[in-house]
Design a protein that fits this description.
Largest sheet: 7 strands, mixed
Order of helices and strands: EEEEEEEEEEE
Shape: globular
Number of helices: 0
Structural class: mainly beta
Mean pLDDT: 96
Low-confidence stretches: none
Distance between the termini: 40 Å
Helix content: under 10%
Radius of gyration: 13 Å
């Protein structure tokens, strides 16, 4: 089993930056694909970013491309999401997810991840 714990969320004004962290425990996630998803009130969970097991490949939703950066430190068993130029529409609960896979075929699909964190709230005011 893998446990994922997110941190770094908060309340800030539009244009600001935050860095979210996702610490994994239970097993090393160096061979896991990792992803960040978010869910706003009344909306379905949506893909934000994903990173391959090595960190060599990253993928982003069009809505965050150029503003968010996903990265990982396998030595620390941690994945990060650097969020810049935040907008009110970025307000959501952000969750990280993991799947033991070298495949990136369905990196954007909620149902293609096996482990989830509890989420951290990000609120961006205008």
């Amino acid at each position: 089993q893998v446990q994922l714990v997110e941190s770094g969320g908060g309340l800030l004004q539009a244009g600001g930056s935050l860095r979210l962290s996702c610490a994994a425990s239970g097993r090393t996630v160096s061979s896991y694909r990792m992803g960040w998803f978010r869910q706003a009130p009344g909306k379905e969970r949506e893909f934000v970013a994903a990173i391959s097991w090595s960190g060599a490949s990253t993928y982003y939703a069009d809505s965050v491309k150029g503003r968010f950066t996903i990265s990982r430190d396998n030595a620390k068993n941690t994945v990060y999401l650097q969020m810049n130029s935040l907008r009110p529409e970025d307000t959501a609960v952000y969750s990280c997810a993991a799947r033991k896979s070298y495949s990136l075929t369905y990196y954007y699909r909620v149902d293609d991840y096996d482990y989830w964190g509890q989420g951290t709230q990000v609120t961006v005011s205008s």
